[in-house]
């Protein structure tokens, strides 16, 4: 039987490499959000509570967080191509297993395994794209990667809503199996070996690894479940917060001291890399948090179903695709700091515009601010990634992309957690203020009492106040996110001047 192998010594074309790795990135990122709209259906089919089934979404993110920091060490140990193929294979098999799960606990385990495979695909793909292109085309490569990073999660809820409306929840996992097989074969034939200067294998400190795993798992649990369990009024949240601080503190201390760390935190000595990650975390408060609450605003105050909410998000995704193309060219012609500042300012303007909407807003009311926000994402992500990775050596590239990916993910989770707290508390405050004005001295209330009686009016007014308070809280979040983006701009002054690659 003939065995087909990639031709030795041949370098595939950059477009072919790009298409190969981006299929994996997009599939992995779609899986981070595709199940969110299907959780009630999965809970009903598997006989689980909403609290239990929420771990189907959280488990995938937990797998992502655990594997991303190990990207550099695992790449050095197995080689980038072998590691990529192993992760893609794990992601494919776990996707198949997810569709065959017969209990919620089995599904959660499979989702964690799927997250371990899918989370590794992002930093590997970013390193491959950055290194496969000459310096003057790295902006274009990061634009393509950024397109997958931004559009993948946005497509997930729409695709998930369509599948749930027209098939069963198992198809959320089964539909991607043929695509995974094709992409796996493409990666086998297209990708080349890891550069020899990057293959420097060292033994892993299992105490340090265990501390990292426990610390990150504890932190992910706190960020994902804190709001549901009322934060530090819960002994579980308090204990896991302490565990995250202690174990992550030990992990950082151990890695800084180690001669050969398995997570190379020394790359933070690069000012560009450090400031880039700092901006990523701060903007994550608005970026990922806002991308989380916007669909909730559409499905809550606006009363849209999951599929229609995805359609309302679509203009922003299309604008991101357009701006990615422009951002690559701007990165070659102008100081990237100016491009990043433009992206931050535009996103702040779009978020502030969203804060002026009402519960009666229609598709065309939302399109304007969504287009502004979507276009801003490309101007933000592409030059920031190029500047952040430009000072990183080939040897440390896998470490850098892995660390940057987990920082971006954790920054987003922190943003979601903070905005959830603000939304709940501001909704309670708004409801209190509105309730204080609902007295018999209010002409509208007095009229309703005469028409429907005191009990009927109380129910009617109570529902109206709760709905208005919910709307006000979301609009407040948009304005808070706008302020967060605006406050991030001064940090660009700390980034060293970067000459554009013409």
Structural account:
It is a single chain. This protein has 17 helices and no strands. By secondary structure, the protein is mostly helical. It folds into three domains: 183 residues, MFS general substrate transporter like domains (Growth Hormone, Chain: A); 57 residues; 239 residues, Growth Hormone, Chain: A, CATH 1.20.1250.20. Helix 14 packs antiparallel against helix 17.
Discrete helix count: 17
CATH superfamily of the largest domain: MFS general substrate transporter like domains
Architecture of the largest domain in CATH? Up-down Bundle
| CATH C-level class of the largest domain | Mainly Alpha
Please report which band the strand proportion falls in: under 5%, 5-15%, 15-25%, 25-35%, 35-45% or over 45%: under 5%
Point out poorly predicted stretches: 1-10
Shape: globular
Integer count of domains: 3
